[in-house]
Amino acid sequence: MTKRNLDTLFNPKSIALIGASATVRKWGFLILLNILKGGYKGKVFPINPKVESILGFPCFPNVAALPEAADLAVITTPAKTVSGLIDECGEAGIQNVVVVTADFSETGEEGAKLEKEIVEKADKYSMNLVGPNTMGVFSAGTNLHALMPMIMPLHGNVSMFSQSGNVGVQMLDYGQQENVGFEKFVSSGNEAVLSTEDYLEYFADDKNTDVILGYVEGLEENSRFMEVAKQVTKKKPVLIMKGGRTEAGSSAASSHSGAMAGSTEVFRASFRQTGVLEALSSQELIDCAKAFANYPLPQGNRVGIITRGGGWGVLAADACEEAGLVVPSLSSDLVKEMDKLLPKYWNRKNPVDLVATIAFDPLPKCLRMMAEWDGVDAVIALGAGFRAFSYQAADGIEGPKELVDTLDFMKKVLEEQGGQPDETLVEVAKLVKETGKPVISVSIGSDYAHKKYSERYGIVSYPTPERAVRVLKHMTDYCYFRS
User: What domains sit in the chain, N to C, each tagged with a CATH number?
Assistant: First the structure.
């Protein structure tokens, strides 16, 4: 099957919004508002025969009245009107249509008949059709926000397709929270014409996309998924979250998107054979997106661990071994070098326990020694943002004058330190570039901190060691697949 050209779908120079509305609580208004608010760079043609203008843009009575054939049409009118509108778009030369409207195959036999009809018409005009039952598309290159919810994703190098609009747009929102930027996004809906495979192929060839995410509930029996995925994963990492893994989830999938969820075992087998990485949760999917989008792959499965306290090091080591990663013993030369920095009672093992050393210097220096050691392929730094954490802990405490005076002095010192870049986090960023190894910061329970570390220092950070290890496992698996 010939690859579909989706360039003008994701990068249109003009958009016709069929069903544009002046009523604030209608999708025809909200999608138009999102397109305009998002700073779309092309022409916008609202279509509504009942009003003269919406949000300052003149309205057209129908598709035939447009001054030119739009690159993209977005339809929000009721399901029974869509078939006729596909004809109007096809006759006007519009090659890309997004059908936001629901009430098709996901609702039963009558809806399935309507869906079959629009498929036949889209085929007649060789039209790219997204949906029906979709929450829209996003493209950073043209600031295209043809989306139902009012969300403005960060721009980056991750692209995503999602058979659930709700899950997909929530991932865009998670991206804002976790400092993960998106290049393109599509809510694929019922996939009546364009399918998961079409988007996968397109993102694989897109020069601005480095990482591909997907949410999949089911595939057609004659799906090209394995054939396509096997080629795509040779170029770029593909991370997919599979919905409908249980009987209850499968039933829910068929009722909201018309998808037949299929056997989870079959999906997992196909993922393993094609190099697709499966994320078991939405958190895991965005965690992996952050690491794959920003860090080099580890060249093996050996992990070095640096920790301020022993317990977290134990948990990180457990998580590594349970995930099939190796925590190697330190070399005698490395031990000798660390002996010069650490108290004589330090453990001399990996994980390297800094035994709650108060001084700030040992952590970044030991971190560099570990990262530069050829005995590991990746490093986890537990408690790397201790300085920022200490600064927060000094705020808002009251008591006797002696205590308050002492705390005021400590706060002043911490404020001076807090205003300076954290040496350890700066060192993490340097080491990634210098060694070509992923060095992951773990902020130890501070959800706020790890997001700030990612944003301020350009590093990959998580609040727990388990999340860091899970990401490293996926990165290692993909490295082995590629090699």
Answer: 1-145 (3.40.50.720), 153-294 (3.40.50.261), 296-385+422-482 (3.40.50.261)
